[in-house]
Design brief:
Elements (H helix, E strand, L loop, with lengths): L10 E6 L3 H12 L4 E5 L5 H6 L1 H19 L15 H25 L3 E4 L2 E5 L2 E4 L2 E10 L3 E3 L13 H4 L8 E5 L3 H13 L2 E6 L10 H14 L2 E4 L3 E7 L2 E6 L4 E4 L1 E4 L3 E3 L6 H4 L22 E3 L10 H16 L17 E3 L5 E5 L2 H8 L2 E8 L4 H4 L5 E8 L5 E7 L3 H13 L4 H6 L20
């Protein structure tokens, strides 16, 4: 399929949003010879680069050092003096790195011949948008505006912060209350606990991380408590108020918790407001995201959407993949390559709690519902490092196997570098590896990862 620009339009593709998905789609389209413009009012890179996965992982690394200093004693290291954490230094160094990444994104767009238009875009027709008084006309429009944190309407709502503000708080919070039980809430609870804050995490549900494997949920809650996070389940916030120079969080049971900062991480919603979607008749789905078909086309044929704004799978690598699939659909695949297709099965993900979580495939609960008869293999152990470190941290590893086919359909880990380990095993699950293939694979000794290929006895 060869692409020919349409002379009736100024652009072949207009992208609204310069996050990971939008930038990837714009670049790939530009490399196909399409005339592309990207509209963005904020820093390039979107949530992931600026207030999401990148700074979060950097802060997660920072939080690991406190334990590393303490654990080093068991290996013969003697520290001179007490290590001291400086919040301002971490913020400054993070900001420098994010600025560097913003520049790289700009260079990538320029290198692909993409025009960057600064400002807020409002769709004024199926093929056009207005930005600062300029009308941009394009054959295809892509909405890739991502999502934004949601804070419920409670008394004192104006006193809380969201994940967007956590990386640049003016002062380090000695007492942090985190409201929420999802991965963002759990990650920030772990991170700030590691950095030295007194952290209380409140979740109204019966366990953290709804949607994850049940064993993983129970295990990480226990490990976080062991590390010092005060995890409270079945807890509801009634109000937040000022109390002198601090904050007071009143729970539904009447208990009052003092806090320097209250983080609400109770979910994210698609960023669809102010785009003019309703006036054009662009349909929204149940989650408030733009409803799209398999080719990412909305109810208005010229308008497409990818990433978090569709409320499908809210992960940066998914948005990147969707962007490439869309470009292949609109402008043809790369020379000599087949058209890309998107498959949402066996998407690996990590949660950067302490310890980390890595997971791919079905949870035990999902597998029982889908396959009926399954076999479960599970290991819970102290990693070799902690035989000398003095830490009580343990590691959980779990395989879920479809009994009929012997295929490994779920793989889950809680432990050091879980994301790094599970990424490799995700390839095996995508390829349809059976438990017999796992069993015949030689492990690397001594590693935690080898446990995935040495588990032989199923649990009851």
């Amino acid at each position: 399929m060869s692409f020919t620009p349409d002379p009736a339009f100024e652009f072949d593709l207009l992208v609204i949003g310069a996050g990971s998905g939008g930038v990837r789609a714009a670049r790939m389209a530009g490399q196909r010879g399409a005339r592309v413009a990207v509209v963005e009012s904020g820093p390039l890179g979107g949530t992931c680069v600026n207030v999401g996965c990148v700074p979060k992982k950097l802060y997660s690394y920072a939080a690991e050092f406190a334990d590393a200093f303490e654990q080093s004693r068991g290996f013969g290291w003697q520290l001179a003096g007490t290590p001291r954490f400086d919040w301002a230094t971490l913020k400054t160094n993070r900001a420098l790195e994010i600025t560097r990444l913003n520049g790289i994104y700009g260079n990538l767009l320029a290198g692909a011949g993409v025009e960057l238009v600064r400002g807020h875009a409002t769709l004024t027709g199926p093929h056009e948008a207005t930005v600062n008084g300029r009308t941009l006309r394009a054959k295809h429009v892509l909405v890739a505006t991502g999502g934004t944190p949601r804070v419920p309407d409670i008394p004192g709502r104006e006193l809380v912060v969201t994940s967007n503000e956590m990386f640049d708080l003016p002062e380090f919070p000695q007492r942090l209350v985190v409201v929420g039980g999802g991965y963002i809430a759990s990650e920030f609870a772990s991170i700030f606990n590691g950095l030295g804050a007194q952290v209380t995490q409140l979740h109204r549900g019966e366990q953290l991380l709804t949607g994850f494997d049940g064993d993983v949920r129970r295990f990480i809650a226990a490990e976080m408590r062991k590390a010092g996070v005060d995890v409270r389940l079945g807890a509801q916030v009634a109000s937040v108020a000022r109390a002198g120079g601090a904050l007071a969080v009143t729970l539904a049971n009447g208990e009052v918790l003092p806090a320097d900062t209250v983080l609400y991480a109770t979910g994210r919603v698609p960023h669809t407001q102010g785009l003019g979607l309703e006036a054009l008749g662009v349909a929204l789905g149940d989650g408030g995201g733009i409803a799209v078909n398999a080719d990412y086309r909305s109810s208005v044929p010229s308008i497409h959407a990818i990433g978090d704004v569709t409320a499908r799978v809210q992960l940066t690598p998914v948005a990147l993949a969707e962007g490439m699939v869309l470009v292949d659909h609109l402008f043809g695949p790369r020379a000599g390559k087949p058209r890309r297709e998107m498959d949402y099965a066996f998407i690996p993900t990590a949660v950067f709690t302490h310890p980390n979580i890595g997971t791919v495939g079905f949870t035990e609960e999902q597998a029982r519902e889908k396959f009926g008869q399954i076999t479960v293999f599970r290991a819970d152990f102290k990693a070799l490092k902690h035989t000398l470190s003095g830490s009580g941290e343990r590691t959980l590893m779990k395989l879920v196997v479809d009994a009929a086919s012997d295929r490994v359909v779920g793989l889950h880990m809680v432990g050091a570098e879980a994301g790094e380990i599970v990424q490799g095993f995700a390839v095996a699950l995508r390829a349809g590896a059976t438990k017999a293939v796992f069993d015949s694979t030689i492990g690397i000794h001594p590693t935690a990862a080898e446990e995935f290929v040495t588990m032989r006895e199923p649990v009851a």
